[in-house]
Design a protein that fits this description.
29% of the residues lie in helices and 32% in strands. The chain is α+β, with helices and mostly antiparallel strands. Helix 1 packs parallel to helix 3. The mean pLDDT is 95. The structure holds magnesium ion.
Length: 165
Amino acid sequence: MSEIPFRVGLGHDTHRLESGRRLIVGGMELESDLGAVGHSDGDVLLHAVTDALLGAAGLGDIGGWFPDTDNEWKDADSSKLLATVVAEIHQREWKVGNLDCTIFLERPKLAPHKANMESKLAKLLQIDDANVNVKAKTGENVGPIGRRESIAAEAIVLLVQESNS
Ligand code: MG
């Protein structure tokens, strides 16, 4: 175990958008004409959060833990991937302090869903809703986000050593 009782981790993820796919963000299926292309359910936010946790714990990245060559993770519910990593982190005597994240999507508007996503994430991370913050930005009609070619998410987490609380 590290001598420092806190660790931060950063996560980022991008998925291509196509018609005929589901759009699942933060564990919620959103109504949209375009959905995320991915080996799993393509939940860009849960993937960024999972990577942030792995980074904070010094445990590598989501591709190493859940390879997209592995059929076990085909169309997988990304909340299961995240729950697996949370369990691993708890086993190493870390708990999540807080999560901040941003979703980049041109449309649909995410504002009506942010509180629900925060609550879902808090449950998965086993922390209070007040310690989870979800932000959303459009691409201002420019770049791959603005042209609705992709969706992306960024996340940062703080881990706190269990014995420190
Ligand atoms: Mg991903």
